[in-house]
């Protein structure tokens, strides 16, 4: 009977390996296809002939995207947004999640504030009031318009709050007996034990700020202040060959189209996150699970 269970468990395990391998391949294939399209000529790409390998290999799509000062300027704006936004998000989330993770006898109004925060997850002020606040506070066309409106991701507060609640209270009590205050307990006890959760939130914030494009469209009046994703969206919709000479334009049009340029910008836009993710992946699943099971 035990042997039958062992055989069944082995078969089930190999089945899981096979299923997850196929699932991983299915996730990678679209990215490979996008990469192949970006290195193919416009004729082959527009004809739908490109599958997983470039046809009539060319780098003109990347040259078209990269050979503009606006591209590097938009990268600078995005890097500012990612650094400032991620740092602000983590600081605000930590400072809000810690007091809300305390017991009611320590923080009597904890439940009231928690429900107020949950309410903001379900009902927001809306796009127009947010735009009016940003405009009236003179944040338009500044980096702060891309950072401050989303400074406190409420879902992240809930995740970190639940993670803090899962930390044994005996550790906090021991630190308190030794004379530690709340600041010391937070920075010396809670945060070092919350590395998986913080790494998960860091990844969420990095991806969110890097991929965000809509706030750049509505809060930036000048294209010079566009973040990367907003700029890339603009060059897809408005392909401009007027700056090229006549012969250069003809050559460029042979190998560059909306399809190849879109593929190039998708790959360039996702490349930094793909490079960062492997360093945070080992914390990702642990952090998101531990931050969601405690109530």
TrEMBL record:
Instruction: Write down the membrane topology.
Output: Multi-pass membrane protein
The subcellular localization recorded is: Cell membrane
Q: Which residues form the signal peptide?
A: none
Q: Name one Pfam family in it.
A: BPD_transp_1
Residues in ABC transmembrane type-1 domain copies: 75-277
Q: Where are the transmembrane segments?
A: 14-36, 82-100, 112-131, 143-164, 185-207, 263-280
What does the UniProt keyword field contain? Cell membrane, Membrane, Transmembrane, Transmembrane helix, Transport
**Principal location:** membrane
Matching InterPro entries, A to Z? MetI-like, MetI-like_sf
Report which superkingdom the organism of origin falls in. Bacteria
**What does the similarity note say?**
Belongs to the binding-protein-dependent transport system permease family.
- The name of this protein is Carbohydrate ABC transporter permease
Q: Which organism is it from?
A: Marinicrinis lubricantis
Q: What is the lineage of its organism?
A: Bacteria, Bacillati, Bacillota, Bacilli, Bacillales
